[in-house]
Design a protein that fits this description.
By secondary structure, the protein is of the alpha/beta class. It contains nine helices and ten strands.
Length: 262
């Protein structure tokens, strides 16, 4: 995957963000290729959410550069990020609970008829089309989303991003508070998105999620990237050592690895 000669879908180079005297992100470089999931992990305060807020346009970096398809871009707000095909699915999902899937999918971007009224039929048709592609078992098109399961709500949020031509998806704790069946459903959705060539940054505290879904794993520690590793070349214990101690594989001793389980 990373050996491709085409430029990455997105590359963040030497990104730094400080809040007062605190360096939340310090000289971080990270990239993502089409059809790839990069797991972004680290302890609380490691800087992973701040880094992704820079990519999503929610926060401006103090220094560094973002490239899309190898070309430098300026992303100053979420609207500009969306124009480059960057969509974020937050843990809270940002869904309107009292309306149905179609109303949520087009929230803020509603379709109207030539007379200026809402074109509910067109919005529902488009929602059914994208949902059939992503989650053929989804049937509750008329129900308020507050009545849906966690996995179904994730489906709606993902469908919204995909319909509006997301190429780069930031997923923040996508399986948090979900049961095993719903977690499996979300994992299936992620694999479907990969197959469609969408690149995904996956922020997660769940090491099992990260190992199941990621192609590469980037570990942050105190605002810096400890390392980015291919999933197949590393153990969960080595990832934990990177998260907890900030040590790369090869730097950590067997005694230190054993101490992780004490």
């Amino acid at each position: 995957m990373t050996a491709t000669t085409t430029p990455p879908l997105v590359e963040m180079r030497d990104i730094s963000v400080a809040f007062g005297g605190v360096h939340a992100v310090r000289n971080v470089t990270i990239d993502l290729h089409p059809g790839e999931v990069v797991g972004l992990v680290g302890g609380n305060g490691a800087g992973k959410s701040t880094l992704m807020r820079v990519l999503s346009g929610a926060h401006t970096a103090d220094s560094g550069q973002i490239l899309i398809d190898g070309k430098p871009v300026a992303i100053g707000n979420p609207r500009e990020a969306k124009a480059y095909g960057i969509e974020t699915i937050y843990q809270t999902l940002a869904l309107a609970d009292n309306v149905d899937a179609a109303a949520n999918m087009f929230l803020g971007r509603e379709l109207t008829s030539r007379f200026g009224s809402l074109n509910d039929g067109a919005m529902e048709s488009a929602t059914r089309k994208v949902m059939h592609r992503l989650n053929p078992n989804f049937k509750n098109f008329k129900s308020p989303v507050k009545s849906l399961s966690g996995g179904q709500r994730q489906s709606v949020a993902i469908a919204r991003a995909v319909h509006f031509n997301a190429r780069i998806l930031i997923m923040d704790e996508p399986t948090a508070a979900l049961g095993p069946a719903e977690t499996a459903q979300v994992r299936d959705l992620v694999k479907q998105l990969k197959d469609e060539g969408i690149g995904i940054f996956l922020i997660s505290h769940d090491i099992h999620d990260v190992f199941d879904l990621s192609d590469r794993i980037s570990v942050m520690y105190h605002g810096q990237v400890v390392g980015t590793v291919e999933k197949g070349t590393i153990t969960t214990d080595e990832i934990l050592a990177m998260i907890i101690m900030g040590k790369k594989p090869g730097e950590v001793t067997s005694t230190e690895l054993a101490a992780l389980h004490v």
